[in-house]
Amino acid sequence: MRAGNLFVVSGPSGAGKGTLVARLLEAVPDSWVSVSATTRAPRAGEVDGVSYYFLDRDEFLRRADEDGFLEWAEYAGNCYGTPRSSVEQKMAEGKQVILEIDVQGAFQIKEKIPEAHLVFIEPPSMEVLEARLRGRGTEADDVIEKRMQAARLELFQKMRYDKRLVNDDLDSAVAELVDYVNAQAEKPQGL
After folding, report:
1. In which residues is ATP bound (predicted)?
2. Which of 48, 106, 110, 173 fits a disulfide with 8 by CB distance 3.0 to 4.6 angstroms?
């Protein structure tokens, strides 16, 4: 059995994190993606324990007070967090645990679990990023501009990550991410 590891994947909206993580899960049999907890109401089709763990605000804050989250934050009046117990359990089982979270959350996790591997996914250029966001056809111009501003700020943090990966060619980016995860999983414990 390989050693369990924690991989935190961050990057701007539109960089392709979700696609890369989905392909990673297909390519690495012992990988597992963490399910976040939230106080927001479920959307149509979302399933508790699969999409998110849906908690009321009091329960979420109680768990936060008891250090039940590796990281958490509040966005637009709702709380989101990474449950500590499920991540630690899966790592103990030898899983390659994948978290797809923002830069601030990544650094919170690195403080609590210094051996976590931070992976930053970046677009080939800001122009490509904007084209990807516009190509979705799901967001208004003002939302896209906010995402572009956030991307510029996130890109300033990329040098603090253990691995930086430019998602220019999807197959190459997937191969690079899979190689990185496998290399970390094959290292002897404690290295």
Report:
1. 11-18
2. 106
